[in-house]
Structure formats: C-alpha cells, structure tokens
Write a structure and sequence with these properties.
Structural class: alpha+beta
Number of helices: 17
Low-confidence stretches: none
Helix content: 25-40%
Strand order of the largest sheet: 1-19-18-14-13-8-7
Strand content: 15-25%
Radius of gyration: 22 Å
Oligomer: single chain
Distance between the termini: 24 Å
C-alpha cells in the first residue's frame, strides 16, 4: 500500500489523471499532452515529447541520439532496442590503443529517429508528421532557456566549442544562451520536417545521411552512408526479476538494466523492511548489492552476440544468492566479478485512458554527446562509442557492426501480469542504481511514487567511493564511513544523481511523479 505523504522537503505532489505525461522538461511534457488532447494515444504522446526534447533539452539529447522503450499495449509488454552499431571501419586497430571521448570517432549509428518511426508505425494513432509539430514550432520560433539548462550548457562550452559544428549550432552569440533568452534552431526545424515527411528515410538513406557522411569524412570520421543505411532496430522483449511481489522489467543487454535486476535479486535475500528507510544498514546493503552487480556487468555485458555468458545466467537465483552471501554488514568491500553458471539523457513516460503505457529514454550520452553537429542540419550526435573497451578478449571490445555497452535504460513494473508502473532515472551509471533505489523505497518501504523520486540518493562510483546528496543525515554518512565506504558528499545541484519520472497505475487513471532535480513536469487530464 502506497503512502501519498512524503517525508522529504519537496513541494511536489503526484499529478493524478486518466491520461498523463511526465518528462524532464515542461515544454516537452506539454507537447505530449497536446497529442493526447488531439485524440492520440500514449505512444503518440511519448514520441511528440521525445522529439520536442531534442529541441528544448539539447544538452541531453538530439536527433543523433539512441533510444530504448518498453511499452504496454493494453495486453502485453514490448521492448525496443534502438541503439546503433559501430561503423564498419571500427576495428580495435583503428583506434591505435586509445579511444577518444568526443568527436566523430565516438559516434555509433544514431537510433532515436528509427525508434520514432517504428513505434509510430506499430502503435501510434496520429499521423507521423503531426508528432513533429510542437518540436518544429519550438525550434523555428524559439523557446526561453531554463536556468537549469542554461547553467549546464555554459559548463560544457569550454570543452566542446572546438568540436566541428558545435559553436555554429549552440553558441549563437559566441556563448551559451543565458537563462530566459530565446534559443532558436532553424536548421533542426528543417531537419525534423525532412524526417517527418520521409518517415526517417532522409536520415538513414537520403539527403541527411549524405550530409552526415560528408561531415564525417571532412573531420576524420569513419561513419559512412552505408553504416546509416544498414541500421535496424531489435524488439528483444524484456528481461525480468521478481522482487517483493512485483516483477521488474528491463531491456536485455547491450543495456545495463540487468544491473538493477541483479542488485534487487541480491537484496531479496535480506529483510530490507526490518531496517528503517534511509538508515545506514539499509543504504549499506543497497550499495554493496549494486557494487556486486556492476562488477559483473562491466565484465560480461556487451552486444548479446558477443557475450560469453547468457543473460539468464547473470540473474540465476542461485548465483545471486551466492553473491548476496559475500556481503558483510560491518564493512564495505571492493568486489570483483563472479563466475555465473555456464550454459546526459532524457527519460519520459506517457499513459492513456485505454491502458497503454510507455517507458522511453533517449540520449546523446555525455552532455551534448560527441559535441559534433552537422552544419545546416542541427543534428547533434551521441558519443555512445565511449561505451566500448579496447581490452583484448573482452566481450565489449570494439568491433565493426557491434553495439556498445549502453547506459540508457527504461524500466517497467508489473504485478500478476498486469501493469503497475513505468520508471526511469537518467544519468549514466546512476540509472540502474536509481531504478533499484526507487524500487526499494516503493516495494520495501511502501513509499508513494513522489516520495520514491524525492528521497535522497547515493551513487556508487568505483572501488569504495560512493557519492551522496547533501540531504543525507550526517550520522548515516558517518556510520557508512566507519564501515569503510569512501563517502563523498556532493553540493546541491550536481547532476550525478539523475532525474526520475514515474507513472503508477491506479484503479482508474495514473499517478505521475516528476523529479525536482531538473525542470521536470508531470501533466495530465
């Protein structure tokens, strides 16, 4: 039973409605709501919001992003992997022993546009072109930049201003736009019109693909039109694990959603509810479970065609029970990977009165991704290639046509085969950690969706280091430090702790929660 009151200092309450949209940016949430008011369904709303986010939150995503989605169509779940593959020229030798962080040679084939096309074709009600109207409006007429986005935009400028096309697209006055200033992106408006008119063909095989290839060649990139034309999405369904009577669903690898499932599977061997919420014992268990899960994920998760263990082996109940046995309540540990039995991002969610629910995420990875923007198009490109390794023999070693380890993950929760909740927490390696922390709050402590989003978060970094939000009580942090955790308290406003959105099914309608850590907004009717 959820409790709708929150013990945390938030001014937010969940939005309750029969149709709802929740995103990290208010203008994008309104774009989705417009589709619902026009007779569209949850997929139409989610796609309009996703497309609008490429305009109004460019620090996090763009037309050159990747995407994933989990969708309840009213009777069953579907999982979409719209992440791109490495260009054909990307051999380990191509990188001469060092993988770049920015620039063209971090760009895998962008998949977000193909996600928009496939989701609309398979599940949408409105015409594809109609979904683009709000985004095109925002791009051509402009929109006022929020203080949150303006501050982070300015922080990224020193690093990215020399990347090809960046300054022309994102520094219109020779600097980042200031809070309240109108930002326009007319080239992106034209690009979105071309994508809408051709159902993505211009992006993968036509005029826009030609421009991407020309720009790649001009700046030493490997991406060719043939790489773009070869792109195809997968519908792999979901992987899942039962936790306290709920079934938590994630997209299978190459994504890191399995980290959440492994951590919850480990925690299921402890009586979490016997420890007060937010106490040191509860937090210690969650940290150690996540460390164990990440140790395995960083060793084994890759393009599924290259993995040397099966997904099912990583979430095998007996294996997770054995991993749980490694946790010592009195001390923190730096775990290595086990041996399983052999055999910058935006999240958005939408639901409608018919029962359709969408959990969707798209991202350029680090702020502005690769930093590369194709001139005259407004297409900013992700740097998902950074998810690869050059380590010989590793399943995630870079190779032609491979998908890299992906951080972006949507989540979905069911109970008894019926939908309960969509869930997403953006922020690199924070994402599965956020999913697990929210599920513990929801399932173990009975917190309502807004409280589960508002509660203070921690982030496992590496080794013994764990970052904490300032809201954690000093006594809890001191206790954790005494157990050996390298406790690092970060100042208010850090992006390290992600941003969550949740839609929870009610008897009639939904409760939609949005995260005060960003500009997030939940709307409905």
């Amino acid at each position: 039973m959820q409790h709708w009151t929150s013990p945390y200092p938030t001014h937010r309450a969940p939005t309750m409605a029969r149709n709802a949209v929740s995103t990290s940016q208010p203008l994008a949430a309104q774009a989705g709501l417009r589709m619902l008011l026009a007779g569209g369904n949850a997929v139409d709303a989610a796609l309009a919001a996703a497309i609008a986010l490429t305009v109004v939150e460019p620090i996090s995503n763009g037309a050159g992003s990747d995407a994933f989605a989990i969708l309840w169509d009213g009777s069953r779940l579907h999982g979409l992997n719209a992440s791109g593959r490495a260009p054909a020229a990307w051999t380990p030798e191509y990188f001469a022993g060092k993988f770049p962080v920015r620039g063209w040679n971090t760009v895998t084939v962008p998949g977000a546009v193909s996600a928009w096309v496939d989701l609309s074709k398979r599940f949408g009600k409105l015409t594809f072109e109609r979904l683009f109207a709000p985004a095109i409006e925002y791009a051509r007429a402009g929109f006022p930049v929020s203080p949150f986005i303006a501050a982070r935009w300015a922080l990224l400028v020193p690093e990215l201003q020399s990347q090809p096309g960046f300054a022309e697209a994102f520094m219109p006055e020779g600097r980042a736009p200031r809070a309240g200033e109108i930002f326009r992106n007319a080239p992106l408006a034209s690009t979105l019109e071309k994508i809408a008119a051709t159902r993505g063909e211009a992006f993968y095989r036509g005029e826009l693909a030609e421009k991407m290839e020309a720009h790649s060649r001009a700046f030493g990139g490997a991406m060719m039109r043939s790489d773009l034309a070869a792109h195809a999405n997968d519908w792999p369904g979901t992987i899942n694990l039962d936790y306290r009577g709920y079934t938590v669903h994630e997209i299978p690898p190459n994504g890191q959603g399995i980290v959440c499932l492994m951590a919850l599977g480990i925690l299921s061997h402890f009586d979490m509810a016997s420890h007060p919420v937010d106490c040191a014992d509860s937090v210690h268990l969650q940290i150690e479970a996540l460390k164990l899960a990440f140790a395995d994920a960083y060793r084994y998760v890759a393009d599924p065609l290259a993995m040397d263990v099966k997904t099912a082996q990583l979430i095998d109940p007996d294996y997770l029970k054995a991993r749980a046995g490694l946790i010592d309540m009195k001390r923190a540990q730096d775990f290595g990977h086990g041996s399983p039995p052999r055999g910058g991002t935006v999240y958005l969610t939408a639901a409608d009165a018919s029962g359709m629910m969408v959990s969707m995420i798209q991202s350029n990875f680090m702020g502005f991704g690769s930093g590369v923007v194709v001139p005259g198009t407004g297409i900013s490109l992700q740097n998902r290639g950074c998810g690869f390794t050059l380590e010989a023999g590793h399943p995630n070693r870079v190779g032609p046509g491979k998908r890299p380890y992906q951080t972006i993950i949507p989540s979905f929760v069911t109970r008894g085969g019926r939908p309960v909740m969509t869930l997403g927490v953006m922020g690199g390696s924070m994402q599965p950690q956020g999913h697990a922390q929210v599920m513990v709050r929801f399932a173990d402590y009975g917190q309502g969706v807004q409280a589960a989003v508002d509660g203070p978060r921690f982030r496992v970094v590496q080794g013994m280091q764990v970052n904490f939000e300032r809201e954690w009580p000093a006594g809890v942090l001191a206790d954790l430090a005494a157990r050996g955790h390298d406790v690092v308290e970060l100042p208010e406003g850090q992006m390290d702790f992600g941003c969550g959105q949740i839609l929870c099914r009610l008897d009639d309608g939904y409760a939609a929660a949005s995260d005060a850590r960003r500009d997030s907004l939940a709307v409905g009717f």
